[in-house]
Amino acid sequence: MAAMMAAGRGWDGRFSWDGDGPWGGRGGQGGRGPRSRRRIFGSGELRLTLLMLIGDEPRHGYELIKAIGEITGGNYEPSPGAVYPTLQLLADEGSIREAKPKKGDEAKKAFEITQAGTDELAEREAEIAAIVHKLTAMSGDEERHRAPELFRAMGNLAGVLKNKYRAGGFKDGDIEEIVDIIDEAAKRIERL
């Protein structure tokens, strides 16, 4: 039994650390598997991505993680253990600074870009474009990032319908009228 335990195979191998047991390891039933271990960002790319996103608007760490997740179509979100030290590095370099907290988000530390950060974004525009292209390619949804106003409008429509429904639903005849409006819009778009 001692030999089995030493080999990570105690209790018939059910508690193996090498990928065969329930807690897996790379490629086992549990754990993350080999795919999640691949490196998404090259050297300095996470730093540039965070700087770019903060350049768009002041954000805190969680918002940055979610924004990268959105760019990749939910296929990748960096870990807090990678994001927060990188934010501290950017702050230490003077590329970002702490921003005034948003209303209701006083407990979260948001960052805004400095002039030095803006200058760096301008100098490294081609690199940033390549990073964004790589991340959007992960989503399989490059079109979404070529026409963001289209997807904003579609999201706006979905949001209005959801909010109207949650606020008390629809009155008699509303559903039919909404369906007619959407069908007419679809026909007009098809004719373009």
Model description:
With 192 residues, this protein is mainly α. It has helices spanning 2-6, 10-13, 45-56, 61-71, 80-93, 115-123, 125-139, 142-146, 148-166, 174-191, and strands spanning 59-60, 96-98, 110-113. The chain folds into three domains: 1-38, no CATH class; 45-146, Orthogonal Bundle (Arc Repressor Mutant, subunit A); 149-191. Helix content is 58%, strand content 5%. The chain has a three-stranded antiparallel sheet with strand order 1-3-2. Helix 4 (61-71) packs across helix 5 (80-93). The N and C termini lie far apart (73 Å). Mean pLDDT is 77; it is low at 1-36.
Question: What is the highest CATH level, the class of the largest domain?
Answer: Mainly Alpha
**How many DSSP helices?**
10
How many structural domains?
A: 3
Order of helices and strands: HHHEHHEEHHHHH
Contiguous low-pLDDT stretches (5 residues minimum) are 1-36
